Amino acid sequence: MLKSLFDRIDSVSKAPSASAHCDGPCGIYDPASARIAAEAVRSMTKKIVALEVPDASDKKAVAAYHNTLARYISIKEEEAQVAKDQLLILWTDYFKPPHLADYPDLHDKFWKAAKLCSACKVEVSEQHADELMAAIKEIHEIFWKTKNRDVAWVLAGG
Predict the structure, then answer these.
(1) What is the 3-state secondary structure (H, E, C) of 57-69?
(2) What does DSSP assign to residue 23?
(3) Are 100 and 106 spatial neighbours (Cβ–Cβ below 8 Å)?
(4) Whole-angstrom distance, CA of residue 153 vs CA of residue 139
(5) What does the pLDDT read at residue 2?
(6) CB under 8 Å, gap of 24 or more: what pairs does 74-77 form?
(7) Mind listing the pLDDT tens digit for each residue in 6-32?
(8) Which of 5, 74, 116, 131 has the most crowded CB, counting CB atoms within 10 A?
(9) pLDDT one-digit tens code per residue, 65-124
């Protein structure tokens, strides 16, 4: 039924074709969103590691511990996915074949950064969270070099 309705609408007024270099032709790219998400991953990882397990006989404290732990894990995993999504957008939408001439290891850098996002989701590893930050810093530096701009690496959380 819907197909016939759309076919009728299309026969009366055909929509013009459009194309863009990416999913949205905004042209706005910045690795900052991946950095901010990765900072949250690192922060939540540190908080999980530092969280003190209460005495098992204190039911309220145990419930509060599990609630806090679940929240930290949820945020860590969500932000790791945000970082991965933002990296993949840069990789697949912004960077083009000419960039590979200047940065032949670009694909490898992005692949490894995306793998670190996955590792941060499934593990509680301060090392991997720090490695993710370092990988995103490298991508940040390359990205801004492609735009002939010197943009400082500034952390939101310190």
Answers:
(1) CCHHHHHHHHHHH
(2) S
(3) yes
(4) 11
(5) 55
(6) 75/40, 75/44, 76/40, 76/41, 76/44, 76/45, 76/48, 76/120, 76/121, 76/124, 77/121
(7) 566 666 666 554 434 445 567 789 999
(8) 116
(9) 999 999 999 999 999 999 999 999 999 999 999 999 999 999 999 999 999 999 999 999
Which of helix, strand or coil describes residue 83?
helix
Q: Which amino acid is at 67?
A: N
Q: Both tokens of residue 95? A: 């960077």
In the chain, the domains with their CATH numbers are: 30-146 (1.20.120.400)
Q: Which pair of tokens denotes residue 83?
A: 């970082």
CB count in 10 Å sphere of residue 99: 15
Q: Yes or no: say if 129 and 42 are a contact pair by the CB < 8 Å rule.
A: yes
User: Contact 34/90 with Cβ under 8 angstroms?
Assistant: yes
What is the identity of the amino acid at 148? Answer: N
Residue 10 backbone phi and psi in degrees, to 5? -65, -35
